[in-house]
Amino acid sequence: MKNEGIEGTERFLSPDRGRGLRAVRHFAVGELVFACPAYSYVLTVNERGAHCEHCFTRREDLFKCGKCKQAYYCNVDCQRGDWPMHKLECVAMCAYGENWCPSETVRLVARIIMKQRVTTDRTPSERLLLLKEFEAHLDKMDSEKEELNQADIAALHHFYSKHISDLPDDQALTELFAQVKSENLMVHFALMNHSCSPNVIVTYKGTVAEVRAVQEINPGEEIFDSYIDLLYPTEDRRERLLESYFFMCQCTECTTRSKDKAKTEVRKLSSPPEPKEIQSMVHYAKNVIEEFRRAKHYKNILELLEMCELSLEKMGAIFADTNVYMLHMMYQAMGVCLYMQDWDGAMSYGEKIVQPYSVHYPTYSLNVASMYLKLGRLYLGLEKKSQGVKALKKALAIMEVAHGKDHHYVAEVKREILDQK
Fold it and tell me: Does the record carry Nucleus as a key word (predicted)?
């Protein structure tokens, strides 16, 4: 079935994967496969003030909404464009003041409900996939997810019932929240199946998702996106996919496990560690990573750095520096160093990370590009000009494929390189 709005592709039903998307013509590396405007969207609390609520442009001279003082816009046109959606939150923000604190998921669902009521024609994203076609996976939800769903429904009623008349019943809300959480209501997620060796990448230009080829795609080949961070070994990825998207991945990378050995590399010692010791350290690494995620909310920054360093010391007795669990903690330590403005420390961690990242991630990974960007800017700040320009050029080579050569992020990096001449 040809897709309205996506020339060169067709939707089809795969016997083992369900709905999918495949090419009906050749796509070269870096070529735009399709673009899709968001059906509905919200900025996170952390992004507010730095990005326009309507077009998501990042700039410093935004102005506030005169009523709620919490929404920021590029200009009057952006404010007017966002008003049909923002007026719902604006009234609630003013009414609740500092007590207005719904989650991004609750805010998004509220906007979707309003969008459904004020929109009569199909939006551009609905021409690709209707809202009702998104999977909810209600039959696969465990009790914990069901409880979280009910908490979100309660929050929606608490913050919005006075401002949205006749909210859908609980059954409809349960399905809508489940759709949002399982597929993020992103058309590209719902149209394309997952692979741990994807042939496209999704990036954003404002509120428009752009899907570009990162491998040659021939007619008849299925188009695969990645739903998750691909750094980790097969079992970790499968666990995450099963928990969040309710399927066991059987892609080529998962069945061959071709990168697992490099990702779980142990030190070459005179007395190699026993399998039980390695498994015990993997268990420790997963626990400390989870502990670190929780700790970020209540530990001070020096304790976080100490926690990283102690974990790296313990894991380093068995794991090689290229092991993904070591890399994870190095990345966290680098972030702490950046926060503390310890540029030399951040550079040292970045240099250890960037090459293994280039091996473990796909060729045109934005995680790799981001690391080269950080390193390049650190080098330039530390007056290491040639190293800085070299790192920025490596980031640019990835970004021109992933974002497209006309993206403002690409233009920004090009300017940084030119400034060094």
Answer: yes
Q: Which residues pair with 285 in a beta bridge?
A: none
Q: From residue 199, give the alpha-carbon distance in Å to each of 284, 325, 402.
A: 34, 26, 11
Q: Which of 185, 224, 227, 228 is nearest to 33 (CA)?
A: 224
Which tens digits make up the pLDDT trace of 96-123? 888 888 888 898 888 888 877 777 666 5
CA dist list (Å): 409 to 28, 34, 366, 402, 405: 21, 19, 12, 11, 9
Query: For residue 114, what are its two tokens?
Result: 């309003």
What CATH number belongs to 361-421? Answer: 1.25.40
Q: Are 46 and 24 in contact (CB under 8 A)?
A: no
In three-state secondary structure terms, 251 is coil
Report pLDDT digits (tens) over 249-266: 999 999 999 999 999 999
Question: Could you tell me the residue ranges of all domains in the chain?
Answer: 1-29+188-255, 39-185, 259-334, 361-421
Domain 259-334, what fold?
1.25.40
Could you please state the CATH topology (level 3) that the domain comprising 1-29+188-255 is classified under.
Beta-clip-like (2.170.270)
Q: Which amino acid is at 372?
A: Y
Q: Which residues of 184-200 are buried (b: 16+ CB within 10 A; e: fewer)?
A: bbbbbbbbbbbbbbbbb
Name the nearest CA neighbour of 349 among 332, 330, 336. 330
Q: How many CB atoms lie within 10 A of CB 240?
A: 15
In Å, what is the CA distance from 404 to each residue of 128, 263, 411, 416? Answer: 22, 30, 10, 18
Longest dimension (CA), the chain: 71
| CA dist., res. 146 & res. 153, Å (int) | 11
Q: Can you tell me whether residue 67 is helix, strand or coil?
A: coil
